[in-house]
Amino acid sequence: MSSRATWASYTGSSAIILTVILLIVTGALVVGGLRLRHPLVAARPGKFVGASLIVGFLLAGYTFVYAELAYVVALVKQRPDALSGASSPIRPVTALCGLLAFLVILYLTLPSVTKPVKAHQFWVGFGSAVVGTIAAPMIFELPYDLIVLWKTFPPTPAALYTPLFFLPLFLVAIMSYAMVTLSPFANLSRTTLYLLAGMFFVFAIWALFGFAFPSTPITFALNSIGKVVAFAAAVSLFLPKEKKVQQA
Questions:
Q1: Which of 50, 77, 218, 222 could cross-link with 45 by S-S, CB 3.0 to 4.6 Å?
Q2: SS3 at position 173
Q3: Is the peptide bond before 157 cis (omega within 30 degrees of 0)?
Q4: Looking at the predicted structure, is the pLDDT value of residue 113 above 80?
Q5: What separation in angstroms does the CA of 190 have from each of 46, 113, 197, 209?
């Protein structure tokens, strides 16, 4: 937790405003969970749309990699020491959560171990675990990035490099959410909404500390808890459906 901060903290009234906004989002998600009587299931895309979603996600990822490369090259040219000590202390937590999410989703989407698993069933379950694990970190990443993008230290001109980095990343997140509809097991339930509310509540507490870079035990713990809850929300999308569902 000695890595150099990659964004500045919120201070004063800005931290209070951020906390209030996050609490409002938390409350809205709780109310949504209370009002949701049956899980929502999105209409599954056809083969063409499904293939388009996968291609779109890959193109978005390819674009982000090159945008990130351009961002880093410009940053190093302008500030040669900018990346020294700027590693992510939360990366091991993300990796462990990703592995656990994949295994749990795979378990939830495969038939009982007492029954033989057909090849088709295995690949459907495996694909569900893949798209769920891809979407899981993005559940955390999208609101997190919307919060910190105003406080980062981009190369100049910031008006060029900030959107160059973040817009492709937002597109990756949106496409990862869309790919979840490829799974026949995916459904939005109260559990998911409550877990999302929990994540935003953790963000609200973090905002009380300025939504600071996780370089202290408290901010590291809040970052880690938020990440774990986000992955749990992704897993909850694949919990067994109730008998009655609403189609979104």
A1: 50
A2: helix
A3: yes
A4: no
A5: 27, 28, 10, 29
